[in-house]
């Protein structure tokens, strides 16, 4: 089975082959790919879902491990898994874009800390939005929908025929523009109020040149931004649900066409 006179159990080899697509999807997905999730848990979930896939689908792994065709099949499986997780990662970038727009207008763009999801530094407001989007994603059973799409992908994109076509790769690229659109719409209520405030402060500075713009504009922007966030957050939460629906719909379109 392995080549070079070595052998492996067929069931174990089939499970390892199936886990490639599942593991790639979990690595790229927002919740499952978090650095706070232990690697052992991620591998265990991949193995458990792999057993489910083998029980519901007839998977024929490549006959030999050390072969060029096998490496190409593994690359195709990893590509499909990464594509499904990457679509969700694109949607989860929308709150970070919104936080950059709002934080820059409020004057708190410099406030950043380590994001526990990816281990990198990100704006504090963006972390707040990302946590809320993650909680909405889990409350809407988005993680279960992702697992369901991964299992269904073995029937729609069976191993050996799993290379994504040009139309599906093009759809992924165009969905990347949705992150900028969603981030702009998410920041629109608060950003519009802050823009109006900046216009008022600008007219005040022109009418009274002796007025210190920084001593008046920065506290006013911060206060208006906090109040606007408190008022507009229910509407922003509703639009975050739309973002989750759109991302899961894009994953379904990628898998089922």
From TrEMBL:
It is found in: Cell membrane; Bacterial flagellum basal body. It is a multi-pass membrane protein. One of its GO terms (biological process) is protein targeting. The chain crosses the membrane at residues 12-32, 39-60, 66-88, 95-114, 126-151, 172-201, 213-233. GO terms for cellular component: bacterial-type flagellum basal body; plasma membrane. Belongs to the FliR/MopE/SpaR family. This is Flagellar biosynthetic protein FliR. It comes from Sphingomonas abaci.
């Amino acid at each position: 089975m392995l080549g070079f006179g070595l052998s492996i159990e067929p069931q174990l080899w089939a499970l390892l082959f199936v886990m490639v697509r599942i593991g790639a999807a979990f690595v790229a997905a927002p919740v499952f790919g978090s650095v706070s999730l232990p690697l052992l848990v991620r591998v265990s979930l991949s193995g458990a879902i792999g057993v489910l896939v083998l029980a519901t689908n007839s998977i024929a792994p490549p006959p030999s491990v050390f072969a060029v065709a096998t490496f190409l099949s593994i690359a195709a499986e990893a590509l499909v898994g990464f594509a499904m997780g990457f679509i969700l990662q694109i949607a989860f970038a929308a709150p970070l874009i919104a936080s950059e727009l709002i934080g820059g207008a409020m004057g708190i763009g410099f406030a950043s800390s380590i994001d526990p999801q990816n281990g990198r530094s990100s704006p504090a407001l963006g972390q707040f939005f990302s946590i809320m989007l993650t909680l909405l994603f889990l409350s809407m059973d988005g993680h279960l929908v992702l697992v369901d799409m991964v299992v269904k992908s073995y029937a729609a994109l069976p191993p050996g025929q799993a290379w994504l076509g040009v139309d599906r790769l093009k759809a992924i690229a165009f969905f990347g523009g949705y992150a900028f659109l969603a981030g702009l719409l998410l920041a629109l209520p608060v950003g519009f109020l802050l823009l109006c405030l900046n216009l008022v402060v600008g007219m005040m500075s022109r009418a009274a040149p002796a007025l210190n713009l920084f001593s008046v504009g920065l506290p006013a922007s911060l206060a208006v931004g906090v109040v606007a966030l408190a008022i507009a957050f229910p509407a922003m939460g509703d639009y975050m649900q739309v973002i989750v629906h759109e991302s899961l719909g894009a994953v379904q379109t990628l898998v089922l066409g």
